[in-house]
Amino acid sequence: xxxxxxxxxxxxxxxxDQQITLISGCTDLKEAVKDAxxxxxxxxxxxxxxxxxxSQLDLIVSNDAILSSSTSTLLPTKLFTGLKHVKQCIxxxxxNPPYYVPLVELVPHPETDPSTVEKAYALMKNIGQxxxxxxxxxxxxxxxxxxxxxxxxxxxxVGDGVISPDDLDLVMSDGLGMRYAFIGPxxxxxxxxxxxxxxxxRYREGIIHVLKTFGPIPDFAGETEQKINEAMIKKxxxxxxxxxxxxxxxxxxxxxxxxxxxxxxxxDMNHL
Length: 272
Known about the structure:
Family: Belongs to the 3-hydroxyacyl-CoA dehydrogenase family.
Keywords: Cytoplasm, NAD, Oxidoreductase, Phosphoprotein
Pfam families: 3HCDH (PF00725), 3HCDH_N (PF02737)
Subcellular location: Cytoplasm
Number of helices: 12
Number of strands: 5
Strand order of the largest sheet: 1-2-3-4-5
Order of helices and strands: HHHEHEHEEHEHHHHHH
Structural class: alpha/beta
GO biological process, one term: fatty acid metabolic process
Helix content: 40-55%
């Protein structure tokens, strides 16, 4: 929080010291959620553990509190089905590291009350996150489905010897990623022609032709795994010291990018 404050990126109206005094921890679940309006479960990706936590929460929360899970892979039907407070349950999947990357995927259970989604959405907006609403649950939600599509083609291209692992990462970091930091793939299409309809007219056939050349789902093992691993550990050896240093560098980059995006947004608001 001190680092965020120094970087001018601390969310909320209170100073870091004031915010820290409002944070406390305890080992008694009942005490932890007393009078809570919103509960965010952040235990490891273990279905039985999460179900156990939610069944305990189900017995002690009020009829107004929102119960949410940070899970990135477990479906709401697996987590919440059978709870008496199921209408108040939602997945609110943040993106790592959430203090720099603001996206939160809101995924409802089929029985989640629409007001739960709206309240969670409003709360996320209020604390400075960027919530998105999914209308229903789907394996991988949206962020990971997009990420896995990229990872899958990455694996095939490197495995087929089309490009080296280092150059592949460069295609994203100094190519697509530059663009996608500010606009998504759909707006990219819209701007890369005279609007979306013109883009589809121009590129529809070419896109379909290329997509038909995509190979089967990789097994993420074997020779390609070794090849990619060798390239990665050359850049960042896979021991805690080197990985943590590289993660710190990544986070510093994200702070600067987040600050830039924040400044651009406030400039845009001033021009309106």
